[in-house]
Amino acid sequence: MDLADTAARLGVPVEEVERVHRLAGDRPSAPLPDRADAPAILDRLAVRPDDAAEIMAGWPGPDSPRWTPELRWLLDRSVALVRADLGGHGWLPPGPALPRERGPAWRHLYVYAYLALVDVVRGYHRDHGIADDVSWTTLADLGRNLAVDRRMRGEGWPVMQSWLTLHARGGVYELGRLQHQRGDTIGLHIPESGPMTPAAVDASLDAARAFFPRHFPDERHTEFSCGSWLLDPQLREYLPAGSNIIRFQRRFTLEPYQEPDGIDADVEVLRFVFRTLSTPPDRLPRDTALRRAVLDHWAAGRHWRWRVGRFPI
């Protein structure tokens, strides 16, 4: 196939199409579930009705005029690319960010890839003795991220589409309040799922302490880790010592600060605290202590920092 022509028709840089072609090679893809089964699967993945309706409207049926040859190629090869790294736990973009305004097939192409991989990764989970309820709870982060992206008017998806490949490869698991990513350490992530109370965090950490030795006995983990603006000690200037965020911070020993490669902490604060990337600061709400802290910090001409911390398992 002509990769340059495919890239032009997709409206993306040719280098990104070449990357998909190189990483996927001729490796096997995986089929989508039957269309008749899709609504029940989307429900189990916590996809909201408005998002589910769009996904079903753009479904890649064999006769759908929305699905051009280049879109079908990208879907097939993106699934193959992710499947080839089953069991991996690093950051893995599944393909180029598409012009999502062109319709549901374009907007949700990587959702269809995720759906094609659900049975693949659940098989991986079963091979590791992981309970079905943990599988579905973990994979239901799809619905949460689609809902957030809708609130962000589509600004969040380019990052989310890569994040979700961790779930589709068995690289991350939601155990109570926290998500836990396999790696040299157990990386902690904080989904939008309610208060981050010390008791809820303790229960999640205890679950992870039992989960990983049981299901991945060949992996030796001695530390939990986290990289986040939430670990920025500057937050202590604004939030009370008894706040959930500050108590979470105090679990960690921070690494010396280094400017992170490719991460702008101010942008990440916008993303996670306000769920926007484009709203001017003077139009952002001040309805929580955290939001007031963020805005007061910026008003003083200061910036947030991305910090990395660890503590023993």
From TrEMBL:
InterPro entries: GNAT_C (IPR041644), NAT_N (IPR041273). Residues 37-170 form the N-acyltransferase N-terminal domain. Gene3D superfamilies: 3.40.630.120. It holds the Pfam family NAT_N. It comes from the Bacteria. Residues 181-311 form the GNAT-like C-terminal domain. Coiled coil: none annotated. This is Acyltransferase. It comes from Micromonospora humi.
